[in-house]
Amino acid sequence: MERIKQHAIWGHKGTFVLAATGSAVGLGNIWKFPYITGENGGGAFVLMYLVFIALIGVPVMIAEVTLGRHGRANPVASVQKMAQQSRVSLGWGAIGWLGVTTAFLILSYYSVIAGWALDYMSTAIQGGFSGWDGEQASAAFEALQADPWRLMIWQTLFIGMTVLVVAFGVIRGLETAVRVLMPLLFLLLLLLLMYAAVAGEFARGLSFMFSFNPGDLSWEAASVALGHAFFTLSLAMGAIMAYGSYMPGRASIGKMVLTVAFLDTLVALVAGLAMFPIVFATPGLSPSEGPGLMFVSLPVAFGNMPVGVLFGAAFFILVTLAAWSSTISLLEPCVAYLTERFGWRRLSANVVIAGSAWLLGIGSVLSFNLWKEVKPLLGLTVFGLLDSATQQVMLPLGGLAMAVFVGWIAKREVLRRELRQESDGQFALWLLLLKYVCPPALLLILAGSFWA
Ligand code: TRP
Q1: CA dist., res. 324 & res. 19, Å (int)
Q2: Any domain includes 8
Q3: CATH assignment at residue 100
Q4: The dihedral of CA 60, 65, 71, 77: what is its sign?
Q5: C-beta 239 within 6 A of ligand 1
Q6: Closest ligand 1 atom to 26 CA
Q7: Whose CA is closest to atom 13 on ligand 1?
Q8: 2: in domain
Q9: How many domains does the chain divide into?
Q10: Do the domain assignments include residue 202?
Q11: Closest by CA position to 326, among listed 167, 124, 106, 179
């Protein structure tokens, strides 16, 4: 078991929370959550999302961190260790393997979207939004989409940034990065919220996000909300498992996980609350704008407000930082797997994986222009396919496998020992949710969205 000695431990007790929050908070919170909320009617969607986070996301996250900390190894080996101790087939390691694969697929297209944020950051810093109206903003967004070279330059730069941090290793690279990035991110977000409260239609934004209309409930929305709950918490991918494996043994897993889930949800809600009031206050913009919501509507707002250059630049820097700490967590489990399983050097593993993700990412880049009409399967582009396959299928399936494995297969005493800081009642409640609530709910929604 020399692997245990090799495996690093975070230098500070609070780093797990910071790192996991850094992983969780990303494009999912700031770009995706507002636009899918807008597309799915607002309040009802937000409510479903919150319920899924609390009843499914949190228990699965606790399961995943427990596996990681117990295994103290890469995701595949961690699951296998638990399987071995529970005297079941090592084939359960496939859960870890599925996770590492999905992380790689997500990394490939996530870097492309993060590249958009980089492009907008550079425009914002140069004061490029000034005076924009809705038409100009749409045209600018379309021009970016239509230019494969420009997309590729930013995608390449972004992957390079990620490689840089991961290359420095867990303690010097990741830990330093998240300790600086996370507090900065919260500061910027609060600034934006304050702006929205003063200059936007705050009451309308608030009621859009929180007034519940039962007519908006649907299988489709439920499936999107569920997939997003997993995506936003970085679950079922080995990312949280890998971070958990660096967690010191004395920390309480339950408390840490609740903190991360709370912070992640807070950021998503604050991002929505900062965005919708601005959308409502700008003529010609609607909350159901789609993926362009952030990239089309906000520059209009920033371009026409006093000190908009400052706020606009702050916002896109924030998005870039958030995406950065997320891609770090997508690359890390793949690198951990190759170095520990095959003895690769950290730098080689890093460069090979990031290079392959970059190559695959070009498929996503081209999906927005030259390959717009290339639809290999189900009428979806390469990007659409990767996006739906990972989020709507692989994440819920991975979560289901994880809940079944930890809830039903893993040895109870081993789990109890790892979760020793939790009270008997808390442990029992967690196991109850994991065994009896998560699997049926996941199956139901997977099946429901399939047939609907
Ligand atoms: N949670 C991140 C977001 O909301 C994305 C992410 C990072 C992720 N690591 C992950 C998603 C691992 C799934 C699995 O943007």
Answers
A1: 12
A2: no
A3: 1.20.1740.10
A4: positive
A5: yes
A6: 15
A7: 234
A8: no
A9: 1
A10: yes
A11: 106
Choice from 231, 263, 321, 390 to test ligand 1 binding pocket (greatest atom count within 8 A of CB): 231
What is the best residue among 21, 65, 112, 329 to mutate for testing ligand 1's pocket, by most ligand atoms within 8 Å of CB? 329
Q: What is the pLDDT of residues 252-265, one digit of tens each?
A: 889 989 999 999 99
The percent of the chain in helix, strand and coil, each rounded to the nearest 5, is: 80, 0, 20
Contact (CB, 8 A) for 353 and 105:
no
Please tell me the distance from the alpha carbon of residue 437 to that of residue 432, in angstroms, as a whole number: 7
Backbone torsion region of residue 251, taken as left when φ is above 0, otherwise alpha when ψ lies between -120 and 50, otherwise beta: beta
Radius of gyration of the CA atoms of the chain, in A = 21
Question: Which pTM value belongs to this model?
Answer: 0.89
Q: How far apart are CA 368 and CA 145, in angstroms?
A: 6
What is the span of the domain harbouring residue 362?
Answer: 13-451
396 lines ligand 1 (CB under 6 A): no
Q: What is the pLDDT of residues 346-388, one digit of tens each?
A: 889 999 999 999 999 999 999 998 888 888 777 788 898 898 8
Q: In which band, very low, low, confident or very high, does the pLDDT at 449 lie, cut at 50, 70 and 90?
A: low
Q: Is 5 inside any structural domain?
A: no
Ligand 1 pocket check for 232: Cβ under 6 Å: yes
Q: Which residues contact 165 (CB under 8 A, 6 or more apart)?
A: 173, 174, 177, 324, 328
Buried b (16+ CB within 10 A) or exposed e, 87-124: eeeeebbbbbbbbbbbbbbbbbbbbbbbbbbbbbbebb
Q: Is the CB of 350 under 6 A from ligand 1?
A: no
Q: Give the ligand 1 atom nearest the CA of 323.
A: 15
Whether residue 29 contacts residue 231, with contact meaning beta carbons closer than 8 Å, is answered with: no
For ligand 1, whether the C-beta of 282 sits within 6 Å is no
Residue 237 Cβ inside 6 Å of ligand 1? The answer reads yes
Coil/strand/helix, residue 380: strand
Is any ligand 1 atom within 6 A of the Cβ of residue 103? yes
Q: What single letter denotes the amino acid at residue 140?
A: A
